[in-house]
Design goal:
alpha/beta, six-stranded mixed sheet, six-stranded parallel sheet, about 45% helix, about 15% strand, binds 1,4-dihydronicotinamide adenine dinucleotide
């Protein structure tokens, strides 16, 4: 693990095996400098356990950066459940995962991620209180349920900031946007964009989702293999990670890439490639922080609709600042965002050391 390219001075990585339920899980805690490490739990069928570890390492670092830049008093962590091919994760396994989280004693706080639903989190919450993203009536903390509408709202505001910075347009009326992935986030994003007057081109592997979005928000459907390469103003990846690499960047027609998917860049070099090609890229963990803001405020308390909306609105201001600094310093936005996050983490680490002393 220490030699892995994805290792970034993580505080701890724990491997769990529960023989009774068959749960196998990894919890990576990147940093608790700013508070308990919060980040979702992903259930996925990985090629092997090394791939699962790499995912946990990369995603937990992303959560540290995301929480720091969103101004939350939370560190970064992530859990992965290794799903066996063709098998669903059982309720008993989610409960065993709750035991795992409980055993970590509050250093890690979980929530849902890809492959895990709000209902699954309710199973986890039977065994631990270090959990967020629960059904809205779950308990007296008034936990807020599905975070994706907040993620979509933040992404919409981020697209607005990017369009202003790169295209010099003050609103989204008439701006063309290609949305890849019409799941929880993508379909809400389409609604925001349509209401703001944008023209939509969409794709999803699921024909029913495509049909629904096309009918509701007057979108045009294209094949999943073509969505990134449309002649549009903005491409919004809202499906999988690693969609931006040398091959795909070479074929982009849009001047802006701004979407909700985590880990959109296959590698850091691809961020530089976008920059060199004159494409403005909104760093994923900055633009997609709406969901963790909602879950974080749920967990910490103070999760009123107004408080969440105000924090999500800051995403637009943060991106404006990043884009402006990028223009002035000729450095890519993803490099500036990483530097900003590391600075916040190290200031937080110094502060907690001071308090401990
Ligand atoms: P989801 O699983 O509900 O939706 C993903 C959609 O992408 C599905 O409809 C799927 O059919 C589609 N898809 C998969 N491969 C595709 C392809 N090659 N071409 C077109 N469509 C494809 O996931 P959700 O919650 O909407 O999240 C989307 C992305 O945003 C993920 O990368 C997730 O990690 C990220 N994200 C989500 C947050 C949330 O609040 N849900 C928060 C922050 C990030």
């Amino acid at each position: 693990m220490f030699e892995s390219e994805a290792f970034d001075a993580h505080e701890s990585v724990t491997f769990f095996n529960d023989a009774a339920s068959g749960l196998r899980a990894i919890v990576a805690i990147h940093s608790t400098a700013l508070g308990p490490a919060m980040g979702g739990c992903r259930a996925w069928t990985y090629a092997d356990s090394q791939a699962a570890l790499t995912d946990a390492l990369r995603l937990s670092r992303g959560m540290s950066f995301k929480n720091a830049i969103a101004g939350l008093p939370l560190g970064g962590g992530k859990a992965v459940i290794l799903r066996r091919p063709g098998e669903a994760v059982t309720d008993a396994q989610f409960e065993a995962f709750g035991d795992v989280v409980q055993r970590l004693g509050g250093r890690y706080v979980t929530a849902e991620d890809v492959g895990v639903s709000v209902a699954n989190m309710a199973s986890v919450a039977r065994r631990t209180s270090y959990v967020s993203g629960l059904p809205p009536i779950h308990d007296s903390r008034n936990a807020g349920g599905d975070p994706s509408p907040h993620t979509a709202r933040g992404t919409f505001l981020g697209i607005r900031a990017a369009v202003r910075a790169r295209l010099g347009r003050s609103g989204l009326a008439g701006v063309t946007v290609a949305v890849q992935g019409l799941g929880h986030v993508g379909r809400h994003l389409c609604e925001y964009l349509h209401r703001a007057g944008a023209e939509l081109v969409v794709a999803d592997l699921d024909p029913a989702s495509v049909e629904h979005v096309c009918a509701q928000w007057r979108a045009t459907a294209v094949h999943v293999d073509d969505i990134l390469f449309q002649n549009v103003d903005v491409v919004a990846p809202c499906a999988l990670g690693a969609v931006l690499d040398e091959a795909s960047i070479g074929r982009l027609e849009a001047n802006v890439v701004a979407g909700a998917a985590n880990n959109q860049l296959r590698s850091d070099a691809d961020g530089q490639r976008l920059f060199d090609a004159g494409v403005l890229y909104a760093p994923d963990y900055v633009i997609n922080a709406g969901g963790i803001i909602a879950c974080g405020l749920d967990y910490l308390g103070g999760n009123t609709a107004g408080a969440i909306a105000a924090r999500v609105a800051n995403i637009e201001t943060t991106l404006e600042h990043l884009f402006e600094t990028s223009r002035a310093t000729r450095r890519p936005p993803h490099v500036l965002a990483d530097a900003m996050a590391r600075e916040l983490l190290s200031a937080g680490g110094t502060e907690s050391a001071r308090r401990a002393a």
